[in-house]
Amino acid sequence: MGLRLKFNLVLLVVFLLGLAATGSVSWGLLQRNARDEVVRNATLMMETALAIRSYTVAQVRPQLELQLTRAFLPQSVPAFAATETLNQLKKKYPDYFYKEATLNPTNPRNRASDWEADLVQEFRNRAAVTELIGERDTPTGRSLYIAHPLQIKDPACLSCHTTPEMAPATMIKLYGPSNGFGWKLNDVVGAQVVSVPMTLPIRNAQHAFYAFMGSLTAVFALVFVVLNVMLSQMIVHPIARMSRAADQVSTGNFELPELREAGRDEIALLGRAFNRMRRSLQKALQMIEG
User: With bands split at pLDDT 50, 70 and 90, how would you rate the model's confidence at 189?
Assistant: First the structure.
């Protein structure tokens, strides 16, 4: 096995080990960054929904008090305002999802699905938990969700949700007397759920990973070629010339020109030593023949 082959094999093994380690670290880092981006998007949607709810309570509902005595206006309900506003976002970004999932809602569209009901039960069973973050598969791909508990903290909410008899007649006329009642103070009745697709950030992370690994491989290929050229010019070829010269001298051929001695590196020192040995050997043979 030649020196060049040994060098290249060692270099290749080192590169493959480095590539594997770098790939593992960069893949994990890019995946975490992609997930963090999704979490930030979901958190922003959740904060937007909370802001809409607060605005509705503070700014919209007081302006509608007179109209509410004549007809029930869903627009005055914070949950309705937040859902409707974010449904406008869903028209452009259909994979983004917001819902105030409730076990026993007044508005049937807010009824919790099976997986949303599991989140509500999780909040009910673990009172200290105020946020749940997880992932789930959807028809359009993997999605990340953030959920907050919907807890009855304001006694004023019970005026619409205790019994049908206590609820506004205008609300009963719109939604009927069957749903959205029996709520109690401090009960967790549902969960605010935001769902954000992970497909695009994960795909971008994968593209970044492939681009990085491709660039790293290209850099290695360039370094590989440069090192091989340097190895050939600075080590392999000079040693090969010395080997041929030593072979000729060993057979008594002293007509070859001396090796080049320029430089101060190890190859030049070896060349000077070889030339001295050759001259000494030639003189010794001349003395024996004479």
Answer: very high
The 10 Å Cβ neighbour count of residue 269 is 12
The CATH classification of domain 34-198, taken from the options 3.30.450, 1.10.10, 3.40.1350, 3.30.70 = 3.30.450
Please give the biggest Cα pair distance in the chain. 136
Beta bridge partners of 98: 194
Contact 272, 261 (CB under 8 A): yes
pLDDT tens figures, 95-113: 898 999 999 998 888 999 9
Residue ranges of the domains in the chain? 3-12+206-289, 34-198
Of 142-151, 192-201, 271-280, minimum mean pLDDT range: 271-280
**pTM of structure:** 0.70
Enter the tokens of residue 99. 């819902």
Strands 132-138 and 97-102 turn out to be unpaired
For the segment(s) 3-12+206-289, the CATH number from 1.10.8.500, 3.40.50.2300, 3.40.1160.10, 3.30.2270.10 is 1.10.8.500
Residue 267's DSSP bridge partners are: none
pLDDT of 260 reads: 67
Contact 146, 39 (CB under 8 A): yes
